[in-house]
């Protein structure tokens, strides 16, 4: 404990140890940052493309990507220039005034999606929260305020706010934060029959991730996705997709739901939209957003000139001819190499699953041990539910980077394979 004294008062403040991710070893490093993460004892001083360079001098292949955020890698010159140019002109004015770059981004997103209108915020959790408000407001505007409950799925993840942890229903995330926020009815992911029987006169919407990321990289079946659209239409519900992690080109299409040939009424996006700059958005059809009138929602920082300039720069690259084709091609190559890896190391990896450059390896040993071992091999990944190691590389990677990743995974698997 250390004593901080100010104006005659003394405060006891703990010195929290910085622990290595998924490891019981305690680092001697201390920090005043609140200890809500089990951080790895690594710090980075710069990045370049798919690589990060640590303060210890080592280079790491980044297949974590800031948890699916750094879609164009690190220090992408187009993003750097966009941010530098905007920073020299205007940072923030608030949404009391028109923001030209915000209007431009909204028009571009509308042109490439189902949506007619956007609200910009700062994170995925904010985007989901805003979308939930929109769903309630839609039914209220239609004269049915009693329709306020939302059907969600097991294994989902929608953020860390009180409403979004309630929506996902993960007991680990809910523990200690009760009473649980009401308004959500959970059904098994992928089961349309149970979903249909869970609809009541109070149901307003269905909230689903087309690919569950945190839950273990579970892609939804295409028939299930199309069935969701039919059920929503049949019962007059809004279909709300959370593409915070699986959107923005990660699957080889700009939006993951496009593989099913259907569209939602509402969608939350974030992560890759800013390529590393904090920005989120919930988007909707004009009909779904009919209740979102002046004064119904707001954000001080959301959609500021800095964030909008960077997000527009991200779209410049993603929408360029051939870019998404490249993602699809490299994604297929990555998957083929991962399938082969699992066959060669059955004592470490059960299977690979995922779409495009959102892949997961189901592990035999505890997945955190695999992530920690990969640190030693010079590769960064991230854990997920169902004992999965997630691979979320920048969308700019080439097949050579896939080969480099497989070599790291091969060495890690060899080291983790039981003797004999």
Mind telling me the C-alpha Rg?
22 Å
| SS class | alpha/beta
Distance between the termini: 48 Å
The percentage helix is 25-40%
Number of strands: 21
Structure overview:
The structure is a single chain. The chain is of the alpha/beta class and 420 residues long. Among the domains are: 78-318, Aspartate Aminotransferase, domain 2, CATH 3.40.640; 329-348 and 410-415, no CATH class. Helix content is 33%, strand content 22%. It is built from twelve helices and 21 strands. It has helices spanning 65-68, 77-87, 100-111, 124-141, 162-168, 171-174, 192-197, 222-235, 305-318, 323-344, 367-376, 399-416; strands spanning 2-6, 9-13, 16-19, 26-31, 44-48, 51-54, 59-62, 117-121, 149-153, 184-187, 203-208, 211-212, 218-219, 238-242, 266-269, 280-284, 349-355, 358-363, 379-380, 382-384, 388-391. A hairpin with a 2-residue loop joins β17 and β18. The longest helix has 22 residues, at 323-344. It is globular, with a radius of gyration of 22 Å.
How do you describe this structure in short?
With 420 residues, the protein is α/β, with parallel strands linked by helices. The chain is built from twelve helices and 21 strands. Among the domains are: 78-318, Type I PLP-dependent aspartate aminotransferase-like (Major domain) (Aspartate Aminotransferase, domain 2, 3-Layer(aba) Sandwich); 329-348 and 410-415, no CATH class.
């Amino acid at each position: 404990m250390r004593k901080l004294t100010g104006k005659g008062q003394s405060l006891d403040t703990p010195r929290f140890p910085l622990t290595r991710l998924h490891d019981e070893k305690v680092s001697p490093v201390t920090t005043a940052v609140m200890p809500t993460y089990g951080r790895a004892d690594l710090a980075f001083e710069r990045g370049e493309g798919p690589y990060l360079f640590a303060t210890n001098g080592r280079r790491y292949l980044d297949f974590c990507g800031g948890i699916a955020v750094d879609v164009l890698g690190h220090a992408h010159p187009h993003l750097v220039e966009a941010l530098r140019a905007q920073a020299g002109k205007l940072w923030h004015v608030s949404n009391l005034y028109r923001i030209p770059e915000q209007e431009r981004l909204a028009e571009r997103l509308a042109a490439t999606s189902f949506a007619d209108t956007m609200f910009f915020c700062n994170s995925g959790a904010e985007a989901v929260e805003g979308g939930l408000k929109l769903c309630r407001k839609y039914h209220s505007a239609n004269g049915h305020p009693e329709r306020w409950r939302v059907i969600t799925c097991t294994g989902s993840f929608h953020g860390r706010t009180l409403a979004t942890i309630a929506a996902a229903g993960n007991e680990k995330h809910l523990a200690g934060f009760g009473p649980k926020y009401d308004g959500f009815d959970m059904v098994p992911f992928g089961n349309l029959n149970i979903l249909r029987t869970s609809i009541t006169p109070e149901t307003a919407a269905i909230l689903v991730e087309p690919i569950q990321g945190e839950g273990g990289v579970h892609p939804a079946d295409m028939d299930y996705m199309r069935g969701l659209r039919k059920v929503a239409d049949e019962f007059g519900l809004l279909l709300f997709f959370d593409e915070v992690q699986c959107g923005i080109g990660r699957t080889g299409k700009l939006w993951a739901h496009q593989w099913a040939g259907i569209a939602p009424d509402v969608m939350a996006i974030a992560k890759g939209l800013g390529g590393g700059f904090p920005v989120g958005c919930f988007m909707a059809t004009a009909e779904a957003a009919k209740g979102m009138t002046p004064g119904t929602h707001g954000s001080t920082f959301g959609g500021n000139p800095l964030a909008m300039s960077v997000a527009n720069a991200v779209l410049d690259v993603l929408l360029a001819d051939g870019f998404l084709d490249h993602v699809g091609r490299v994604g297929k190559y990555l998957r083929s190499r991962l399938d082969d890896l699992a066959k060669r190391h059955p004592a470490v990896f059960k299977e690979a699953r995922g779409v495009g450059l959102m892949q997961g390896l189901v592990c035999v040993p505890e997945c955190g041990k695999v992530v920690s071992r990969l640190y030693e091999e010079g590769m960064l990944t991230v854990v997920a539910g169902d004992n999965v190691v997630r691979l979320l590389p920048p969308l700019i990677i080439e097949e050579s980077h896939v080969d480099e990743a497989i070599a790291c995974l091969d060495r890690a698997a060899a080291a983790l394979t039981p003797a004999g």
